[in-house]
Amino acid sequence: MSDTNELSRLVRPKALPAGDLEIEASEEERAALAKRFGITAIHSLSARAGFGEKDGAVIVDGTFDAKVEQPCAVTRDSLTYDISESFSLRFVPEGRMGEYEEDAEFELTEEDLDEIEYEGDAFDLGEAIAQELGLAIDPYREGPGADAAREEAGIESDEERKPSGPLAEALRGLKKD
Questions:
Q1: What pTM value is reported for the model?
Q2: Where is region (Disordered) located (predicted)?
């Protein structure tokens, strides 16, 4: 996990919350996360998480909702959009994560995914949610004016661009009209 912990919410496995835990990021936390992810702003961030236990691990199933603002990847104009994602995380005490031989083939199961090892007597659910948000932010998000800006600059899309060269000519010759 990051050393930054802009959204720290410690949970102790020996005293798991009863029912769902609601998390609402403060203005300061959202500003710090926006800086971390290199976007303009995070206008809102909330999450809800439920807890279970299995084989000495804490299973966390939840959802988060955020409203983020960032520049369009093409025009650099500001655009704001909503993100709504679900997550399933498995927190395991230090030294209890699955060990795999370096060159051995193995198959990951659903439980192997999003497994997070923690030290001490608590894990940081807030940091895990921050990382989930970071993965959900699209760094190449385009706004409504992106196509017009490309057209004005004379940039063809991948679909419009026709391959050139001897191989492309030979393939076009084989194509049935």
A1: 0.77
A2: 140-177
